[in-house]
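F.,

This is the one I mentioned.
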């Protein structure tokens, strides 16, 4: 009688991981006391402040610096008037406990639905992007473009990785490029695979470029600028340390990726995702044969140019025209229509390929919605403010380098519960920034600790973008953790050292 082979453990899919986190978030709403700070918001039309409590009661106050001083809010009046601070800020000293708001089975069951509804902007963006990719794949445009690029970069493949990753890091540090990078994976994955890299190199180059850029933000309005405004200082304070940290972190990341890619090129079995690579190559290079590709003719060049032009337009719109997902989706809808016209395909084939491409990214879109559902559970459970209240109590009275280091760890923790960088900044800075005054430190140290901490945790936080990213390339979460854990350790040490330097200069 032959022995039955033991089933090999398979790490759960991204959806299962998210549902586990969703249940854990629900359990926390039973265990962590509910509580809330009062909020203050500026009403531009009436030129008044509106103080609101969790019970819905609102009080109108004059929009004066005197009111802010009495409430011990250190955000200058001009930051509200100029709309540098758009979200309600927490009022120091106003935290109060509330009746417990446990989120039970029905709330948990509904959370993914509410999350999808709340994330409809980015979901539509992802689906339209998938449609464009579908048309490009159907016409062989990507295959022809990959073959042409491979000839140009032969022998200099990692230079391409370094340049692309650094461009993404630049986008992250200047304007918070994060969700927009989802558009890059279908384009760059086939190119990187055809150049001899495994899929993990693609993920690391793009995702870590974005993560390091946002972690060490310099002019990012969604994090360091809004945090500095909420702390009552100029975002230029501490800029030098953040720039040096950015350069060092990006260099370390590229060195780490290079060592890994070299090891895998030498022996593909060294790849962390070696067993997944045949499936991934089949997905992205199914019809790609470098010796037998469609000609890179005028039609295909025109389609690729139209598609690629969408990215600088998108970046310009986000940076200068206050675009968000609705505008970006409109852009890619127009691009999709142009691609269909240029494709030369029959109408039914062209539209069918667009819909097939969109269908390929449905799982990514749903993951984004489920992840948002976790945040909804935490928000409705009223425990995020309690976490902030506890964090502020922990760091009060701590001095020097330890103050900044503990702050960074606490902001990493808070980043799980409040994954929005601007949301975390406007909520936490009015409470935590003044604590720097009590230990004779600059508030720029608090801003850097917030930026480093929430950015560091975003590398692996299931409530952020990572699971949607991994779903794009069909890589499991545990393999990402295995790959990135050593680099995260190095970045943690770097961040703590740079914070220490910032406290003494």
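My design for it:
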């Amino acid at each position: 009688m032959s022995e039955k082979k033991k089933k090999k453990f398979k790490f759960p899919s991204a959806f299962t991981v998210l549902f586990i986190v969703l249940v854990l978030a629900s359990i926390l709403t039973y265990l962590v006391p509910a509580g809330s700070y009062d909020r203050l918001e500026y009403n531009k039309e009436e030129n008044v402040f509106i103080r609101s409590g969790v019970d819905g009661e609102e009080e109108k106050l004059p929009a004066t610096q005197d009111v802010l001083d009495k409430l011990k809010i250190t955000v200058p009046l001009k930051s509200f008037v100029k709309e540098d601070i758009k979200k309600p800020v927490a009022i120091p000293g106003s935290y109060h406990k509330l009746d417990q708001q446990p989120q039970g089975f029905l709330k948990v069951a509904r959370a993914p639905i509410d999350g999808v509804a709340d994330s409809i902007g980015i979901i539509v963006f992802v689906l339209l992007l998938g449609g464009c990719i579908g048309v490009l794949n159907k016409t062989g445009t990507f295959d022809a473009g990959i073959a042409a690029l491979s000839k140009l970069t032969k022998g200099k493949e990692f230079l391409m990785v370094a340049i692309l990753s650094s461009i993404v890091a630049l986008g992250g540090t200047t304007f918070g490029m994060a969700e927009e990078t989802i558009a890059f994976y279908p384009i760059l994955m086939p190119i990187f695979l055809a150049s001899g890299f495994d899929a993990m190199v693609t993920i690391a180059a793009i995702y870590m470029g974005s993560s390091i850029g946002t972690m060490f933000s310099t002019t990012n309005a969604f994090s360091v600028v809004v945090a500095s405004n909420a702390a009552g200082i100029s975002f230029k304070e501490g800029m030098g340390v953040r720039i040096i940290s950015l350069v060092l972190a990006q260099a370390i990341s590229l060195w780490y990726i290079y060592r890994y890619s070299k090891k895998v090129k030498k022996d593909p079995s060294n790849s962390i995702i070696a067993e997944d690579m045949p499936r991934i190559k089949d997905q992205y290079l199914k019809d790609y044969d470098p010796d037998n590709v469609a000609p890179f003719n005028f039609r295909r060049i025109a389609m690729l140019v139209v598609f690629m032009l969408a990215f600088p337009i998108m970046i310009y719109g986000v940076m200068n025209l206050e675009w968000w997902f609705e505008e970006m989706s409109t852009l890619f809808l127009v691009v999709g229509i142009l691609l269909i016209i240029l494709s030369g395909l029959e109408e039914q084939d062209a539209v069918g390929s667009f819909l097939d491409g969109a269908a390929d990214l449905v799982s990514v879109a749903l993951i984004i919605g489920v992840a948002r559902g976790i945040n909804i559970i935490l928000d409705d459970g009223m425990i995020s403010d309690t976490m902030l209240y506890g964090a502020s109590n922990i760091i009060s009275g701590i001095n020097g380098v330890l103050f900044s280091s503990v702050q960074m760890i606490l902001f990493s923790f808070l980043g799980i519960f409040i994954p929005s960088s601007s949301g975390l900044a406007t909520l936490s800075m009015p409470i935590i920034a003044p604590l720097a005054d009590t230990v004779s430190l600059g508030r720029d140290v608090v801003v850097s600790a917030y930026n480093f901490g929430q950015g560091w945790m975003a590398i692996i936080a299931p409530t952020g973008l990572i699971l949607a990213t991994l779903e794009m390339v069909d890589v499991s979460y545990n393999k990402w953790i295995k790959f990135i854990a050593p680099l995260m350790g190095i970045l943690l040490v770097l961040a703590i050292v740079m914070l220490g330097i910032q406290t003494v200069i």
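The beta strands are 35-36, 39-43, 48-52, 58-62, 89-90, 96-97.

Talk soon.
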